[in-house]
């Protein structure tokens, strides 16, 4: 009875609202001190008093804090909750921020799971390769898994030759040419046709772009291509593409009177 006289109806003490919202009394005192959540009233005995509206505001603060906003940022984002539109607006803003956070977390989880798989398959501790894999995952490079098969010389060449932008441009060019080679092979395009030779020229330019004119890198590419430990789907796709690429390049080199591989294919 005495408490009812001290605490007006519709109000909660600091301890009561803290218990309902799963926070500490010290947290509420701190939010009051920072100007984030001052009590709606003070009892005759000097106790801070809160209302249901304060509880909604506290939920807003806790949600924004959970999303990583600083208290200063939260203070700027708080708006009066005087109308249904005010309440709905701030809830939608929080929902949008939460969806963004969820997407970022989903992306991080996706990257972590794939890096873990690569680490287990490598069976060695190689932080330089780990870093390369992470970068390629962030670039959304579908061929990130190839990195574990590259030796240090080839990796150093790639690191020195490409940055993120040029690296993605090269990957996209490679994918387009690979798909075109498979399509030409399926359509029966002749390797020595004008179409086939234009393709061969583009493909060779792509290889030269990768090597930077360093012919010694060709042996590395051939050695990599002949590896038996590559992903089965990758190997099947490469086999389909090479059914057109190899004869097209042979005709192309023959017309130019050159043999850039110098017998390396048989090595």
Keywords summarizing the entry:
single chain; about 5% strand; about 70% helix; 3-stranded antiparallel β-sheet
Please write out the topology.
Elements: H1 2-6, E1 12-13, H2 14-21, H3 25-33, E2 41-42, E3 48-50, H4 52-66, H5 71-77, H6 84-122, H7 127-138, H8 152-161, H9 164-187, H10 194-211, H11 216-225, H12 232-256
Antiparallel strand pairs: 1-3, 2-3
Helix pairs in contact: 6-7, 9-10, 9-12, 10-12
Please tell me about this protein's structure.
Mean pLDDT is 85; it is low at 263-267. The protein has 12 helices and 3 strands; from the N terminus they run αβααββααααααααα. A hairpin with a 5-residue loop joins strand 2 (41-42) and strand 3. It has a 3-stranded antiparallel β-sheet. With 267 residues, the protein is mainly alpha-helical.
